[in-house]
Specification:
alpha/beta, about 450 residues, globular
C-alpha cells in the first residue's frame, strides 16, 4: 500500500463519518450504505484492499467493530440501528490496514516502533490509559475509535425525552473563528437537544470541593494533594502505576461526570451527551462506578462533521447566549487551569500559614516522569495537577486547530467574565440550592450532593 493511499485514507476518515451521519439523519442508512464505498473511493473503487479498509471505517463510524471478514454492510447497519449503547472496546484496530504495514510481522509479533505496543485491544489487555497516542502515531490510521452518534439520532429527532448536551470548557476556539457559545447552543437545540450546558459550571462546583479537600489534607509542609479533576488519563495512570500515592488523590469525579449526574438528579429520565476533545472520555463514561452519568460522548471533530452533514451554518444562527461559568471553571481547559482555579478558591475558603504551591504536568510522558519525581521527593509542591495531553484539554487528540491558538482563545474567554471564582457565580449557588444545599460552604459537609461528586478510586 503506497503512502499516498495511506494519507488519503486517514484524511477521509472523518469525511466517511460525515456521509454516514448524513444518511442516518435522513433515515437512508440502509438504503445508501452499500453505495458509500464507491462514493468515497471514486476511481479507486475497484481496489479490493482499499474497499475493505473503507468499509471498516464505515463500521467504526456507525459505532460497531471492524471486521476482517467481508460481509454485507446492510447487516452491520441493522446491528448499528439496534444499539442503545456503543459497546467496548471503544478503540479498535483495523487489521486489514495492519496486514499491509511493513512494521507488522505476524499475529503476535510487532516491531517495537509499532504504536500497537501501547495498546492491543484485540487481546483485551488493560495497559491502555486512553491518551490516544497510538492513534496519532500510526501512520496508516489503523487504530481508531468508534463514534457514538447513531444510537441517539432517533432520540434527537423524536424529542420524546429530554436530551442535554454538556460541553467541555475546551470548546472555545473550536468549530471556527465565528463560533460563539450562543450560536453553538442554538445549533444544538436545532438538532433536537433540550439545551446545551457548559461543563465549566460543574468545574466551578468541583473547584470549591477540591479547595476544601486541599485545606483538610495539607496540614504540614510535607503534605500534598493530587487533584483527580478533568483527566481520566491522569487518574488511570495513577491507578495502574502509582498505587502508593492513591491516598493523596482527591476522590472527586471529573466535571464531565458531575455534569451528567447533576443534570439527571434535576431532570429524571434525561439523556446526557458529553462533547469534548478527548478519546479517553468515551472510556471514562463506561467505567462501572460512574457509568450512570453520561450516556454518549462525541468529540469536537465529530460534531464538526455532524454540522457539515446537517448543513448547519453557525454564522447564520442567532445567539442563544447566557453566562454560566466563572473564570475558574472556564480555565480548566488548559494546563495549569485547575491549579489556578483551586488556588483562588483556597484563598476564599481559609487563611493559611502553609502557602499553596502547585506543579503541573502535561502529556502522558511528563505525567509519569513527574509522579516518579514526586515519589522521590524531588519537588516542593503541595497541589499536583496532571493532564494527559500536552497543553491540557485544548491539546486533546480530537481537537480542531493548534494548541497555542486554542489556549489563547480559552484565556480570552476566561478573562471575559467578571466572575472570578465559583463564589462569585450565582449559577453555582442556584444549582446546589436545587440539590438541597443553601450555600457553597455546605459542599464541605453536604452528603446529598457529595454522593454526586465523588467516585470510588479503589476499584
Amino acid at each position: 500500500m503506497e503512502n499516498t493511499t495511506n494519507n488519503r485514507l486517514q484524511k477521509y476518515r472523518m469525511s466517511i463519518f460525515k456521509e454516514v451521519a448524513k444518511l442516518a439523519w435522513q433515515g437512508r442508512l440502509e438504503e445508501g450504505i452499500e453505495e458509500l464505498p464507491d462514493q468515497i473511493l471514486g476511481e479507486k473503487a475497484d481496489d479490493e484492499k482499499e474497499r475493505k479498509i473503507v468499509r471498516n471505517y464505515i463500521r467504526m463510524a456507525m459505532g460497531i467493530d471492524p471486521s476482517r471478514e467481508e460481509h454485507s454492510l446492510i447487516e452491520d447497519v441493522k446491528k448499528a440501528l439496534q444499539l442503545s449503547q456503543v459497546e467496548s472496546p471503544l478503540v479498535a484496530v483495523i487489521e486489514n490496514i495492519c496486514d499491509e504495514c511493513h512494521r507488522y510481522h505476524g499475529e503476535d509479533t510487532y516491531d517495537e516502533e509499532c504504536p500497537r505496543g501501547h495498546f492491543d485491544c484485540t487481546k483485551g489487555e488493560h495497559r491502555c490509559i486512553g491518551c490516544g497516542k497510538c492513534m496519532d502515531e500510526c501512520p496508516l490510521g489503523a487504530i481508531s475509535d468508534k463514534i457514538e452518534f447513531i444510537p441517539f439520532i432517533k432520540m434527537l429527532q423524536d424529542k420524546k425525552q429530554p436530551i442535554y448536551a454538556t460541553i467541555a470548557p475546551a470548546y472555545v476556539g473550536q468549530l471556527g473563528d465565528n463560533m460563539t457559545p450562543g450560536k453553538l447552543r442554538a445549533a444544538l437545540k436545532w438538532m433536537g437537544f433540550t439545551d446545551m450546558i457548559e461543563v465549566a459550571v460543574f468545574a466551578d462546583i468541583l473547584t470549591v470541593k477540591e479547595a476544601y479537600e486541599f485545606d483538610h489534607m495539607v496540614k504540614t509542609e510535607k503534605d500534598f494533594f493530587i487533584t483527580s479533576c478533568c483527566c481520566p488519563v491522569w487518574v488511570g495512570l495513577i491507578q495502574k502505576n502509582f498505587e502508593d500515592i492513591e491516598e493523596h488523590v482527591s476522590p472527586s469525579v471529573s466535571p464531565m461526570i458531575a455534569s451528567g449526574r447533576v443534570v439527571k438528579a434535576l431532570n429524571p429520565n434525561t439523556k446526557v451527551v458529553f462533547i469534548g476533545p478527548c478519546i479517553a472520555k468515551k472510556a471514562e463514561a463506561k467505567i462501572e462506578d460512574i457509568k450512570d452519568a453520561i450516556d454518549y460522548v462525541l468529540t469536537f471533530r465529530e460534531l464538526h462533521e455532524i454540522f457539515g452533514a446537517l448543513e448547519i451554518d453557525l454564522e447564520t444562527l442567532e445567539d442563544d447566549d447566557r453566562e454560566e461559568a466563572s473564570f475558574s471553571g472556564r480555565v480548566y481547559a488548559r494546563t495549569g487551569g485547575v491549579s489556578k482555579a483551586v488556588e483562588l478558591s483556597v484563598e476564599r475558603v481559609t487563611q493559611r500559614d502553609i502557602p499553596f504551591k502547585s506543579v503541573c504536568f502535561d502529556g502522558a510522558k511528563d505525567c509519569k516522569e513527574g509522579l516518579h519525581r514526586l515519589l522521590e521527593g524531588e519537588m516542593q509542591a503541595n497541589f499536583i495537577e496532571g493532564m494527559g495531553c500536552v497543553g491540557g484539554c485544548v491539546g486533546g487528540p480530537r481537537t480542531i486547530g493548534s494548541v497555542e491558538e486554542a489556549t489563547e482563545k480559552v484565556n480570552r474567554y476566561s478573562e471575559s467574565t467578571t466572575m472570578k471564582t465559583p463564589f462569585d457565580n450565582n449559577n453555582v449557588l442556584e444549582l446546589i440550592t436545587s440539590l438541597g444545599l443553601k450555600r457553597l460552604e455546605s459542599l464541605e459537609h453536604g452528603e446529598s450532593i457529595k454522593n454526586l461528586l465523588v467516585r470510588n478510586l479503589n476499584r
